[in-house]
User: What shape does this take?
Amino acid sequence: MISEGGSARSKVTRGRVQRWLVGNPRFTPVGIFLLVIMVTLLAIFAIERSESERNQALQSSRSAALASALERRANASAAYLRAGAALIAAQGGEVQADDFRRFVSELRLDGDSRGAEGIGWAKVVRPGGEAAFNTLLNASAIIPAVLNPARQPGQPFSVGVLYLQPDTDRSRRALGFDMYSEPVRRAAMDEAADQARPTASGAVVLAQEGDEERPGFLIYMPVFVMVDGRRQLSGFVYSPFNGQDFLSSALELEDAGSYLVNLYDGWGDGSQLLASTSPGVEPSGRVVRLQVNIANRPFRIEVGRSGSAALSRLSMATLIFGLLAASLLMLLVRMLTRQALEDEAALNWFEEQSAIRATLTRELNHRVKNTLANVLSIIALTRRRGGSLDEFADGLDGRIRALSATHDLLTMSDWGATPIRALIEAELNPYAFEAEHTVEMAGPDVELAPNDALSLGLAIHELATNAAKYGALSRPGGTVSVTWHRRSEELVEVAWQESGGPPVVRPDRRGFGTDLIERVVAQELKQPVKLEFLPEGLRCLLTIPVRRPTQFAIRAGKQPPAITTPAEGK
Assistant: This one.
């Protein structure tokens, strides 16, 4: 059960909220929209930060896995090279083509050897041994080949490719090539001979590539034999690697996912790109760089984003939901604000109407009192002047009807302004359509206040009644002329002129009409009334105030206000 105190507090709260909505019709919806958007952006920031941390951890993990896969590929190839070197060394540094082919086939290279283009035997050719090497090469090769290029001055020996398995057209392009003639290969072979272990070369273009410029590298394993009790270099068992194929083989072990992976020869600024999952595309965002040791040589792997930074799916969903929620809330508050404005405008209008009703009640009371006062004055004057009961009743009846006719006009105008012409026509209608009488009216359009119209109507009635009894309207050919004109913006003068009736003689005593006009009417109008008993006919001048509508039209312009918001009202 809700207590009265709680109900009162609830009403006060609602009133404050409504006043706030009415006082801030623009700020409130926009403010709520911006508040929801700010909350949404904070949520997106938190989501993106969490996603970034998760992606960084995943990126680091994926980079380490890729580096490990590259090393496994290289170590598997190095193991096969060691086996081949042991076989050739056991045969005294000489191996026949069939034996070498059988050795490679018996290795049964599995998935771990993918990325290498096979295994080759490159024999050391010392000065003077070129012819014997060419003879051996042509005896084993399907196509003629010779040692090339010619040995340069100062070069101690050559290292010519004698075999390269598997035997393919691509492999045959390398037969006879002196790998010791090229500086990068020579440096790798010298290091391998010094350390007696598999050693990778720097970035080179393989001899079997032909006209293509695809970079790669080689891994050399030296073969030594004993000659006269001393160890002598006999040649190198080696594997050539195309950089792109080597990277692709490692990605078979560890998928790169959505990351871009670049493989470089070396670690420093002079490193050369060997392979990339997206050639020509630079990684964006955070890039993880790791060193990979491949056969005693450092390589560098870089893992980064391949696309432009964009919001995650969860962030996009949060943003869309936030925009929808903010828009709906703004629309709802806008509707509430408009309803509050309409409610306030309606309350103001009702308060104004209540004030108008109270004013109308007071005004009606005042006007009823004035009308009753006029009636009492008419009764008193009629009683003093009436010779008999019938005469008294007839006089009283006519004057009350005159008041009633004027009241009808005021009722039709909603107790607003009443035109002078309509008022005079209403009082003279009983006489204007008789053929023997002439009634003339002329004047500008002027409207009178209700009390002033009552007084003028009563005066015209008395003048018309007097004219019908004793003046111009009492015989055929009589004329009554009523004209009016403005004396100023605040006064209008009405002139009653009779002609064509019996000669007028100023009465010895004041009659009822004279008293009514000069006392009642003049007192109500607060202006003097001038009566002239001219021989040709009675003349009466009435001065009537012309008031502004705001002085008497209580409900002028008091219509229900149009409901508009401040933005619409401008």
Remarks:
- The first strand starts at residue 119 and ends at 125.
- The two ends are 47 Å apart (CA to CA).
